[in-house]
Amino acid sequence: MRDSQVWRSSLMILLLGLMAGCATQPPQPVQIDRISPEQLAALVPPPQSTLTLDEIVVMTKQGKTDAEIIDAIKQSQSRYALTPSQVVSWHQKGISKGVLDYMQQANALAEQNAIADEINKREKARAEAEAKLKRERDYARLRSMDPWFYGPGFYGGPGFYGPWGPRPYWGGGWRYW
Fold it and tell me: What is the pTM of this model?
């Protein structure tokens, strides 16, 4: 009778201990660092056009091909942010669809590159922060596994000799991994 009570009470204590061990905080959701519209507008380089759209219309009327006009745009490093209504308007003035398509694609590519650069910069900063935390964690783990480490100053200061003579297993000690 007495053995069964001891058995039950020990089982209850074990179950309560297991249940208490399971009562932990849920993991925090991953925080996503989003780019606000204001930050996005600051990241994306503004369109710059040294070759104006009127000059492109003149080039088209002079009979230049789309490839020649696109090469001129590339050499001038011009970018154009055109709305759909502006695309239609410039097409009616004489700029070909191929040139207008190139203008839109070049602008979109420049925006994507600017955003990708920002993402890469943030990812690099995050990786550096993780590496720093890992170094700190590893240092703390190594220090805590040194059986002769009792904190700074325990052996009489940071030097090799303390009040009890040289520190055995200097920089090492027993490792348990």
Answer: 0.55
